[in-house]
Amino acid sequence: MKAIGYFENLPASAPESLVDIVADDPVPGPRDLLVEVKAISVNPVDTKVRRGTIPGSGIAKILGWDVAGVVRAVGKDVTLFKPGDHVFYAGDITRPGGNAELHVVDERIVGYMPLSLSFTQAAALPLTSITAWELLFDRLEVSRLDSGKNKQLLVVGAAGGVGSILVQLARKLTDLVVIGTASRPETKAWVTELGAHHVLDHSQPLASELRAAGLPNVDFVASLTETNQHLPQLIEAVKPQGRIGVIDDPDSLDVMPLKRKSISLHWELMYTRSLYQTEDMIEQHRLLNRVSSLVDDGSLKSTVAEHFGTINAANLRRAHELLESGKARGKIVLEGFN
Predict the structure, then answer these.
(1) Which residues are in coiled coils (predicted)?
(2) Which of 41, 99, 163, 241 has the highest count of CB atoms within 10 angstroms of its CB?
(3) Is 147 a residue whose pLDDT tops 60?
(4) Is 190 left (phi over 0), alpha (psi -120 to 50) or beta?
């Protein structure tokens, strides 16, 4: 099968940082689906793994953790899907990724693709939807439709992939006042379009931005980027006994200042369930199916912002460069193989 991988850790601008390869067709295990990959999207995790994870000697490492495709075969113990089903999923970081014509994935972390979306539109959703949903409802423990509470959620980096879904989920499924941050006119417009009540500039001190907007304190924070830079401002802005959720990878965090306000800090990694084969791993299947239903009833929309053409090494290198520039909004998608 055709695939894209890398043999050494190189900058995205280097021609050998991602290369077109031919790999063996994968064989599904007992609970696996064999999926024909129709479309993919690219996430920051792809760039982090490409830069930091050394592949085996002489073996290309295949990236890609957002797939929309068609089930072609199933393992002997599969009960949730059948050949011909249209599916979408974010996969398992411990296994080869989906930047390939064929891919195997555990059925418990796969959802039925929204009926109303194309493969490219659907490919933009799984990883960010799982991350946003788990962060909002599992980690921060926001109550759905908590009527009359007038609580506030600050989403730092709301124009990115996760933020673009998180803003929509919070507006559609909760009564929170949603405050997004963005720093450029086009990203501010994007966050407003997604439904944020207020949009602040995270290139300025956030506590000051909140006060200027008449929002001196917030109950919840979803810190999606540059947490180490923003943390002192977030601690100032969060109410006593508030909650901060984090998804990025700061080198270090000084958490002692959280103690005075009894602020709790929560990490979200959407791969935890598949990494540890947790007993509730199937929750990601159910979660994706709920997202699919919300898309089909018009409550959520795909967050595709850039279509980079067919799935090949050159186009993926361009996608990695854009993500690493910090100027991307929404999701970058690619579709089909030459």
Answers:
(1) none
(2) 41
(3) no
(4) alpha
Q: In Å, how far are 82, 165, 325, 326 from 44, measured between CA atoms?
A: 31, 15, 11, 10
pLDDT at 148 over 80: no
Q: Which CA distances in Å does 216 have to 205, 225, 250, 295, 335?
A: 12, 21, 26, 34, 44
Phi, psi of 176, deg, nearest 5: -65, 145
State both tokens at 153: 């959620």
pLDDT of residue 330: 83
Q: Taking Cα atoms as reference points, which of 338, 334, 302 lies closest to residue 318?
A: 334
- Which CATH fold would you assign to the domain 144-268? Rossmann fold (3.40.50)
Amino acid found at 48: K
**Dihedral over alpha carbons 226, 136, 190, 335 (to 10 degrees):** 90
Work out the average pLDDT over 301-319: 95
Quick check: 65 and 93 in contact, CB under 8 A?
Answer: yes
d(CA 198, CA 218): 13
State the alpha helices, DSSP H only, in 149-255: 161-173, 185-194, 206-212, 227-237
pTM of the model: 0.94
Domain positions in the chain are 2-126+279-337, 144-268
Question: Residue 324: helix, strand or coil by DSSP?
Answer: helix
Please enumerate, as own/partner, the contacts of 186-189 that have beta carbons within 8 Å and a separation of 24 or more.
Answer: 186/329, 187/159, 187/329, 188/159
Among 50, 43, 91, residue whose Cα is nearest residue 248: 43
Q: Dihedral of the CA atoms 129, 301, 287, 71 (nearest 10)?
A: -100
Instruction: Give the residue-averaged pLDDT of 116-139.
Output: 97
Q: Any idea which fold 2-126+279-337 has?
A: Quinone Oxidoreductase; Chain A, domain 1 (3.90.180)
Q: Which two tokens stand for residue 142?
A: 């926001």
What are 64's two structure tokens? 């890609």
